[in-house]
Amino acid sequence: MNINLTMFGQLIMFAMFTWFCMKFVWPPIVMAMEERKKRIESGLLAAERGRSEQEEAQAKSQEMINQSKDQAAEIIANATRQASNMVEDAKDIAFKEAGKVKEKAQVELEQDTIRTRNELKNQVSDLVMQGVSAVLDKEVDAKAHQQMLGKLSQSLS
Amino acid sequence: MSATNEVITSGSYIKHHLQNLTYGQFPDGHWGLAHTVSEAKEMGFWAFHLDTLGVSFVLGALFLIFFYQVGKKMTSDTPSGVQNFVESVIDFINESVRGSFNGQNPMVAPLALTTFIWIMLMNTMDLVPVDWLPYVAQQVGVWFGANPHHVFFKVVPTTDPNATLGMSIGIFILIIYYSIKEKGAGGFAAELTFHPFGKMMLPFNLFLEGVNLIAKPVSLALRLFGNMYAGEMIFILIALLPFWIQWGLSLPWAIFHILIVLLQAFIFMTLVIVYMDMAHQKEH
Q1: For B114-123, how does the pLDDT look when each residue is reduced to its tens digit (9 = 90+)?
Q2: pTM over 0.80
Q3: Which of A92, B24, B121, B233 registers the highest number of CB atoms within 10 A of its CB?
Q4: Counting Cβ atoms within 10 Å, is residue B130 exposed (0-12), middle (13-18) or buried (19+)?
């Protein structure tokens, strides 16, 4: 229990141990721990960033889907409108065409009727003339009665 | 051999256990190992306790080699079992330093680590049954031709006040060094003389602060020494009882002593950190 040189021996040993610990033991351990801390930190940050990016991308794609849906609906609506317009137009044109054809047919019909009537009139007057001249033969002067026959054929028409 | 016929009484058993293996200068001037308690006493100041120095050196070296080996293989990837252990110790020390030390000094944390582990290992020697290592030392001594009753071996370095005082003097030197470095010689002198009662009471202040300053290393050393010495004493007393009752007492005491081993190491370390912090504080 005497106080003696042991004290100084212990003091020197303590100083040596502390120095060694400070120089060779402490730094590598703490450095590795710091490095891991940094890596974990950056990893967490990256994960956070990845998650927010994913959310953003999802929102963007949702927006794009919505937009394209709207666009598609618009296109369909336009197409329907256009189709119905086209049908209407076609109907109009068809009606007009039909009207024109009808008119033309009527005009032709009237003209045919007139021509046929005239022909018939001429033929009837010729027949009458033939019949009358066959009956009367010589007594009737064709020239003298031409006027009367003309009147007759006129009245027939 | 006449030595084997010496009667072992309780008193001599205890005395034998409390005597260090002393190498020093005899009164006639030559150096050598002390063979008896009185011879060791006569050597006075010029002597070494070989057991204290040896055991503490071996323990400190074990600690440093172990931590150094782990430190060399440190990886910042998934740590292995040993690395986990070392890292948790380092974390614990870092936490303590961060909690109590506000200055900027890369030396404090390694200092705290060394103090904590070293003292803990030295205290742990107390848990080795009291007769084992002295018996081994005795056999080694006999092998070298010594009288077994003259071979002393005190296993626990922290039960030697030289060990604890040596460490606390180291701390004391650091306190003074950093006080002067951080506050300047004038600032340190002012801290010692102008508090707590102002300039008019300078001698009284110096006395108070001086006591305060000296008390730090003394209390540091004596607290650790006292606790471990008392614990060791109880183990020795238990060892004197009949063998069939020894385990019933030494087991609970050893379990309780684990707490003291850790607690004393922790207190020493914490106080070292606090004293370092006080030395670094610029304003009082």
Answers
A1: 999 999 999 9
A2: no
A3: B24
A4: buried
